[in-house]
Specification:
Blueprint: H1 35-49, H2 52-62, H3 70-80, E1 83-91, E2 95-102, E3 108-115, E4 123-131, H4 144-160, E5 166-172, E6 175-182, E7 184-186, E8 191-192, E9 199-202, H5 205-218, H6 238-243, H7 246-251, H8 262-267, H9 274-281, H10 298-312, H11 316-328, E10 349-350, E11 368-369, E12 384-386, H12 388-399, H13 406-413, E13 417-418, E14 424-425, E15 430-434, E16 437-446, E17 449-456, E18 461-467, H14 473-484
Antiparallel strand pairs: 1-2, 2-3, 3-4, 5-6, 5-18, 7-8, 9-12, 10-11, 13-14, 14-15, 15-16, 16-17, 17-18
Helix pairs in contact: 1-2, 4-14, 5-10, 5-11, 9-10, 11-12
Length: 488
């Protein structure tokens, strides 16, 4: 299971592809007259056509070093609907960059392509990275009524196309103005999703973990500039213990890396406590000099959970229950183990061919339960479950200073470091400026789960979306309505 900030979402995602993008067929003159731009335009035509054979032939002929399978390419084409070419940025004979927009969503991306100088100018590099709405592109703001009507229409369209299954809540000044459930919580048993359905939330747990840490900072029990080793003196790797600070763990700048990958897959069900993760991964050195750059780190937030345990004297799960969920009135949120029955918890459905999955890859894949990708239980890095109602209660408690005082709430949610997606990362929250509106929150995504929370104090709106299917199902819905709601 790969719990990541997914591109978009909110906060920070990157999609590196063997090639992606599209072209306005009616305006090919927008492309510069260079070998790199010609290759990009030709690739766009092949990708947008949706023709598997045409795209495969193009890649084999023009991008001989590409590594993604045609199944992956076609799956990506299905999720995005293709791209519209919007703008050229850098253009030379062998390099071309610019902006594209997904046909089926508001998502923009920056593309880059590099080609060989000699004919036939084979592609040597191609990629896409999701970015926030460009500042020179006006947001389609509407009245609240029109925005919610557009949201309902878009949701009905997405559900009919089997692109969304989950719950959506929009609140104004803390009170719901839109709350709907769509699709099935269990496809085999035909159990529908309801507003009480609990969805796995992936990395959205990081918000709760960051609140726990800041509570202990506010209480004078943790210092943000202290190294990890002050609180975990027996931590195995001394470079991480002495060089990585609490601030760096909270901002993904400590170089502590991820824990998903072959080792996780091998020991997935053996990792039952936070300390089990430290035992398995604690000898690793930093991946880069702590503080030198930003790189999303699930393991860093796992370590923050261990710090909470050491400082508070409670298990992470007990602490977050007593100091976040209870004060906020969150009665449907937790991280109970996957082998325990959790009432109203939905089945997650994925088309990802992960460990143990027998589904076909790519565009022809069928939905199947994500059971074989799930950890034993969620951690301080992510993996718990919640409802859209509880996420609103969390947002209201945060803004009402029931969890932290005003100073530490602002410290928690104000961006501190730039991310590759063009946003800022705070402490367990991403911060984004959409036009005149500042929003903060966090997304979560992994096979069979996707969610997003946006809290926008200036406009008074909060948007919570949860889905029991692959990303970017919930993120695209959240983005759609957040872009259209009034800015005041």
């Amino acid at each position: 299971m790969k719990i990541k900030i997914l591109a978009a979402a909110l906060l920070v995602a990157a999609i590196l592809l063997a090639g992606q993008a599209t072209v306005f067929a009616q305006a090919p003159a927008q492309f510069p007259d260079t070998p790199a731009a010609h290759q990009f335009a030709a690739w766009l035509d092949a990708f947008n056509s949706g023709d598997r054979t045409a795209l495969s032939q193009f890649l084999d002929k023009n991008y001989p070093t590409h590594q993604r399978s045609i199944d992956d390419e076609m799956g990506f084409r299905q999720r995005t609907g293709g791209f519209e070419f919007k703008k050229a940025e850098e253009s030379t004979a062998t390099r071309f960059t610019g902006l594209v927009k997904e046909r089926d969503s508001d998502q923009y991306a920056r593309f880059e392509i590099e080609v060989a100088a000699e004919e036939p100018h084979a592609i040597t590099k191609m990629g896409l990275r999701a970015i926030p709405q460009p500042p020179d592109v006006p947001l389609p703001r509407m009245s609240e009524g029109d925005a919610l009507a557009s949201l309902r229409t878009q949701l009905e369209k997405d559900v009919a196309a089997d692109k969304f299954s989950g719950t959506v809540l929009v609140a104004k000044d803390g009170k719901p103005v839109f709350a709907e459930a769509y699709g099935l919580a269990d496809r085999d048993k035909k159990i529908p999703n309801t507003l009480d359905t609990r969805f796995r939330i992936g990395s959205m747990n990081k918000m709760f973990t960051a609140v726990c840490v800041l509570q202990l900072v506010q209480a004078g029990k943790i210092n943000l500039t202290d190294p990890l080793g002050k609180y975990l003196p027996d931590y195995p790797n001394k470079d991480i213990a002495t060089k990585v600070t609490i601030h760096q763990l909270l901002t993904h700048t400590g170089g502590t890396g991820d824990f998903f990958g072959p080792e996780f897959d091998k020991h997935r069900l053996e990792l039952r406590t936070l300390q089990d993760y430290v035992t398995l991964y604690g000898k690793r050195a930093p991946e880069f000099e702590p503080g030198s750059r930003w790189e999303y780190s699930n393991y860093g937030f796992l370590l923050l959970g261990v710090v909470v345990e050491k400082v508070s004297g409670q298990s992470y799960y007990d602490y977050v229950r007593d100091h976040v969920y209870k004060p906020a009135g969150m009665t449907s949120t937790g991280s109970d183990p996957e082998d325990q029955v959790v009432q109203l918890r939905s089945v997650g459905y994925t088309k990802d061919a992960g460990p143990g999955a027998n589904a076909n890859a790519g565009v022809n894949a069928q939905w199947h339960p994500n059971t074989d990708t799930l950890p034993y239980r969620g951690t301080s890095a992510g993996g718990g479950y919640s409802t859209v109602g509880d996420l609103l209660r969390f947002a209201n408690a945060l803004e009402g200073h029931k969890l932290l005082d005003a100073h530490y709430t602002e410290l928690l949610t104000t961006g501190k470091v730039d991310t590759p997606a063009g946003e800022k990362y705070a402490y367990g929250f991403g911060e984004q400026i959409r036009g005149a509106v500042r929003c903060f929150g966090h997304g979560g995504g992994a096979p069979g789960m996707n969610g997003n929370l946006d809290i926008c104090p200036q406009s008074g709106y909060t948007v919570a979306v949860l889905a029991n299917m692959d990303p970017p199902a919930a993120q695209r819905v959240s983005q759609f309505i957040s872009n259209r709601l009034p800015d005041k």
